[in-house]
Amino acid sequence: MVATEKDFLKVLEAIREIAPTLRGNGRRAEEENWIPRTNIELLESTGLFGAAVPERFGGLDLPAEQQAALLTETARACGSTGWVSVVWVTTAWMATLYPDTAQEEVFADGKVRISGGFTPSGTLVPTEGGYVLNGSWRFNTGVLGAHWNVCTALVEHEDGQVEEVFPLVPTGELTTADDWDVFGAAGTGSVTSTAKDVFVPAHRVVDAAVYESATADRWNAHLTGRNYSLFSYILAVTTSVFIGLAKAALDEFAARLPGKGITYTNWSEQKEHPHIQFQVAMAANKIASCEGLQRALLETVQRRADDGEQMTLEEKATVRGQLAFVAQTTKEAVAMLLTLSPASSITRGMALQRIHRDITALSLHGLLAPIGSLEAQGRVLLGLEPGTDYL
Predict the structure, then answer these.
(1) At what angle do helices 274-307 and 64-77 cross, to 10 degrees?
(2) Where does the record place the Acyl-CoA dehydrogenase/oxidase N-terminal domain (predicted)?
(3) Are 255 and 361 part of one and the same domain?
(4) Which tens digits make up the pLDDT trace of 259-317?
(5) Which of 106, 127, 153 is the last residue of a domain?
(6) By the 8 A CB rule, do 303 and 339 touch?
(7) Same domain, 51 and 191
(8) Number of Cβ within a 10 Å radius of residue 108
(9) Could you tell me the pTM of the whole model?
(10) Which residues, other chains included, contact 130 with Cβ-Cβ below 8 Å and sequence gap of 6+?
């Protein structure tokens, strides 16, 4: 049975119910460089990890906008948990572009956690029945708790042509390093993973053309309205983390404001000061404007999928550029709120300083940074080639 609005709302409410626990585990996630097992189990119980899984495998098969709404609430509770969840949900959607044989393996239990990335730092060598995979992948978010991982690699064909491909392997066949030591988003556990002479059957390796031809129903004929443009879908949904973190900052600031004065002044209630009121309104409006951009991006992604059409170059460049804008603008909103806060906000026990560090760290991601992302959008707006294949 296809998921209904009622099913979506049930998952949304379940995430909101467990949010206090996720939020309470935030410091522990940071200290341990990985989200607690409790967070994963609670989110799994809500059904979140089935959000992008095809209905025919027992998943919710939700549209991108509803996926984003669920992930926003997750990130609002815990930024690291939200970032990991975005990776697991969107990469599960990527698995729907593989042949049926691979999908039957991956989605055997109806819900799955899949990690991966797009840096081709591995090599594939053809062998009987498939390939042998070797390589290492840095910043592999979610691999510590995933069932499968997309290990982007290069393969050299007999004619000498080198092609980028996407092997899908069980995470049990990879090793991971203890090398995630960062100032923000520490709980994402984005360690380096390594494959050494891992055999990958041919049906679990696809090339870039498969992803680009998603709307042609090459592999995902069962996914009506889910034939998204790969990068545009992932980037549009990823805005959820930044909006969730910014909302969390506003929540935290407002909750601590009553009874707070302005030190070394006669103001006994900070909230009564016009400057505070002005800045809070500005921060709230920055967040609201980003939500509006997110809705527009998701509507474009969904409309093209519903119509069975590829997104245009202009639309893809807009998604890339506007995601970077969302990342920067929400980061500004969080910084404004932290600046207004009392000195006690810098202590490790206060959530606001961690939210600020998390959103700052995540905004440095290569696909989200202004240089590259806004450049690509600007180039296309000026009638030039985007200067990147990552659209």
Answers:
(1) 150
(2) 25-94
(3) yes
(4) 777 777 877 778 778 888 999 999 999 999 999 999 999 999 999 988 888 899 999 99
(5) 106
(6) no
(7) no
(8) 11
(9) 0.94
(10) 199, 200, 201, 202, 204, 205
Is the domain of 251 the same as that of 367? yes
Cβ neighbour number for residue 12 with a 10 Å cutoff: 17
| Contacts with 6 (C-beta within 8 Å, 6 or more apart), sequence order | none
47 in Cβ contact with 14 (< 8 Å): yes
pLDDT tens-digit map of 313-366: 999 999 999 999 999 999 999 999 999 876 676 777 788 999 999 999 999 998
Q: Is 119 helix (H, G, I), strand (E, B) or coil?
A: strand
Q: Any idea what DSSP says for residue 259?
A: T
SS3 at position 174: coil
E-state strands within the chain: 114-127, 130-137, 148-156, 162-170, 175-176, 193-201, 205-207
Cα separation, 285 vs 330, in Å, equals 10
Q: Where are the alpha helices (DSSP H) in 216-312?
A: 230-256, 274-307
CA dihedral 141, 142, 144, 147 (to 10 degrees): -130
Q: Kindly state whether residues 64 and 11 are assigned to the same domain.
A: yes
Cα 368 from Cα 362, distance rounded (Å): 8
3-state class percentages of the chain: helix first, strand second, coil last, to nearest 5? 55, 15, 30
The total of structural domains in the chain comes to: 3
Same domain for 149 and 118, yes or no, is yes
Token output for 121: 């730092």
- Structure tokens, 247: 């909302």
Residue in 207, 188, 193 with CA at minimum distance from that of residue 134: 193
